C-alpha cells in the first residue's frame, strides 16, 4: 500500500513537472525561429561591447545608454567591470558614444550596475536621469542631474525601498517620482528560478514618490519595460513571459486601471514611445531559451516591433527589424529620432539605422 502511495505521488509529481515544463517552453517561446527582416542603412555603434540594455532619447536627439548590466542567468562579457552611462548625439551624421563622467561624493562607481533608465525634464529644462542599478545584485534607483556642458552626471540621491526589491525598468513622472516594474518577487536567486520556472506571476508595478510608495498593478509573469504616452494619460507595461503589452489608464492619484492588452509571438522587453507620433517601439527576444542559456554557436536573435494607433480598435503592428543573431543578439530596446532608429541589446552590441 505504501509503495502504491509513493508511486502515485511520484506519478502525480512527474505529470505536474511535465505540465510545467511544457508551459515553461511555451512561455519562453522555445520553438520560435526568426524570419529575417533587414534594414538597408544600418551600422553597429562603435564603442559598445558590453550591452546597451536600455536607452532613452531626449527631445533634442541626445541619447542616454546604459551599458555593462550584470543580471542573474544572463551572460556578461565583462563580469568584473562596473557599468557605465553613455551619451550619443543622434543629430550627428556618424554619431559616436561618449562615457558620461559621474560626479558626487557619495556614489560608489565600482558597484554601478545600470539596468533600466528614464529621464525627466523639469520646467527650467534641468534634465534628471533615473537609473535602475543592481549593486551586489540588490536594487536601487540612482538619481542624477545631467550636466550637458561638462558631459557629466551629478549624483544626487540613491533611492531604496522594500517595495522595490528587483527593479527592471522605470518611467519617471517627476524628478524623484516614477513607476517601476519589479520583474520577480523573490530576492533569493534559487527561489527566483522556481518562481520563473513555475510561472507564479508574482511580478508587479510600483509607484514611488518621496512621500508615497504603492503597488499599482500586479499578477505579471515578469513585468519588464514600462513607459508613458506623450499626453501622460496611459502607462504601457510589457509582460515578458506572457508576450503581452498592457495599456493602463493613469489617474490623477497615480492609480492605474487596465484598459487593454496586445498579444505577440515574442518576449517583449523595453518600451520606447515616439514623442511625436505616440508609437511604441519594443525591443524583443524571439526565443527566451537562447537569452537565458547563451550559446555563441546558436545565438539569440533580435526583433524590433513598432505599434501604431495602440489606443484604437485596430492597432498596427510592424516587425521593423529581425535578425537571427548574426548581426545583433538579444535586442532589449529600440527608439527613434527623426527617421533614425537605435537598437540596444543585453549582451554586447548596439545598432544604428536610417529608416
Ligand atoms: Ca526605460
Ligand atoms: Ca528590460
Features:
binds calcium ion, Neuraminidase, mainly beta, 5-stranded mixed sheet, 355 residues
Q: Could you please describe the fold and organization of this structure?
A:
The protein has 355 residues and is mostly beta strands. It has one domain: TolB, C-terminal domain (Neuraminidase), CATH 2.120.10.30. The chain has three helices and 25 strands. It is globular, with a radius of gyration of 20 Å. One calcium ion is lined by residues 116, 168-169, 224-225, 269-270, 332. Residues 1-15 form the signal peptide. It catalyses: an N-acyl-L-homoserine lactone + H2O = an N-acyl-L-homoserine + H(+); a phenyl acetate + H2O = a phenol + acetate + H(+).
Write the layout of secondary structure elements.
Elements lengths: L1 H26 L13 E4 L9 E4 L4 E6 L16 E6 L7 E3 L1 E3 L10 E8 L5 E7 L6 E8 L4 E8 L7 E8 L2 E6 L6 H10 L4 E7 L2 E9 L2 E6 L5 E6 L4 E7 L5 E8 L3 E7 L6 E6 L2 H5 L9 E7 L7 E8 L7 E7 L2 E6 L4 E5 L1
Parallel strand pairs: 6-10
Antiparallel strand pairs: 1-25, 2-3, 3-4, 4-5, 7-8, 8-9, 9-10, 11-12, 12-13, 13-14, 15-16, 16-17, 17-18, 19-20, 20-21, 21-22, 23-24, 24-25
One calcium ion (CA) binds next to β2 and β7.
Helix content: 10-25%
Count of individual domains: 1
Order of helices and strands: HEEEEEEEEEEEEHEEEEEEEEHEEEEE
Main β-sheet, spatial strand arrangement: 6-10-9-8-7
Provide the CATH superfamily.
Answer: TolB, C-terminal domain
The N- to C-terminal Cα distance equals 70 Å
Helix/strand class: mainly beta
The CATH topology comes to Neuraminidase
- CATH C-level label: Mainly Beta
In terms of DSSP E residues, the strand content is over 45%
Q: Roughly what is the average pLDDT, rounded to an integer?
A: 95
Rough outline: globular
Any idea what the CATH architecture is? 6 Propeller
Characterize the biggest β-sheet. 5 strands, mixed
Any idea what the radius of gyration is?
A: 20 Å
How many strands? 25
Amino acid at each position: 500500500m505504501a509503495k502504491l502511495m509513493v508511486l502515485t505521488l511520484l506519478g502525480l509529481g512527474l505529470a505536474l513537472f511535465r505540465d510545467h515544463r511544457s508551459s515553461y517552453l511555451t512561455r519562453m517561446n522555445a520553438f520560435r525561429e526568426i524570419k529575417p527582416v533587414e534594414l538597408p542603412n544600418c551600422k553597429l555603434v562603435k564603442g559598445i561591447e558590453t550591452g546597451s540594455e536600455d536607452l532613452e532619447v531626449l527631445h533634442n536627439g541626445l541619447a542616454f545608454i546604459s551599458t555593462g548590466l550584470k543580471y542573474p542567468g544572463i551572460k556578461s562579457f565583462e563580469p568584473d567591470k562596473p557599468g557605465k552611462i553613455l551619451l550619443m548625439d543622434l543629430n550627428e551624421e556618424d554619431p559616436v558614444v561618449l562615457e558620461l563622467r559621474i560626479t558626487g561624493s557619495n556614489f560608489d562607481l565600482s558597484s554601478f550596475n545600470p539596468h533600466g533608465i528614464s529621464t525627466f525634464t523639469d520646467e527650467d529644462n534641468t534634465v534628471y536621469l533615473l537609473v535602475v542599478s543592481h549593486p551586489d545584485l540588490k536594487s536601487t534607483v540612482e538619481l542624477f542631474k545631467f550636466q550637458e556642458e561638462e558631459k557629466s552626471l551629478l549624483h544626487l540621491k540613491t533611492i531604496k525601498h522594500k517595495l522595490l526589491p528587483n527593479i527592471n525598468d522605470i518611467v519617471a513622472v517627476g524628478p524623484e517620482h516614477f513607476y517601476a516594474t519589479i520583474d520577480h518577487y523573490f530576492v533569493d536567486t534559487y527561489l527566483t528560478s522556481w518562481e520563473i520556472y513555475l510561472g507564479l506571476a508574482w511580478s508587479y508595478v510600483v509607484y514611488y514618490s518621496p512621500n508615497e510608495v504603492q503597488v499599482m498593478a500586479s499578477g505579471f509573469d515578469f513585468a519588464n519595460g514600462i513607459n508613458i504616452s506623450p499626453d501622460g494619460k496611459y502607462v504601457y507595461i510589457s509582460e515578458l513571459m506572457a508576450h503581452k503589452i498592457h495599456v493602463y489608464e493613469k489617474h490623477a492619484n497615480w492609480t492605474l486601471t487596465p484598459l487593454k492588452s496586445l498579444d505577440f509571438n515574442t518576449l517583449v522587453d523595453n518600451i520606447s514611445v515616439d514623442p511625436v507620433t505616440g508609437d511604441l517601439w519594443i525591443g524583443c527576444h524571439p526565443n527566451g531559451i537562447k537569452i537565458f542559456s547563451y550559446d555563441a554557436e546558436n545565438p539569440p536573435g533580435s526583433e524590433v516591433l513598432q505599434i501604431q494607433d495602440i489606443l484604437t480598435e485596430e492597432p498596427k503592428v510592424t516587425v521593423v527589424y529581425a535578425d537571427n543573431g548574426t548581426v545583433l543578439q538579444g535586442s532589449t530596446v529600440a527608439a527613434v529620432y527623426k527617421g533614425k532608429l537605435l537598437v540596444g541589446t543585453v549582451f554586447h552590441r548596439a545598432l544604428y539605422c536610417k529608416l
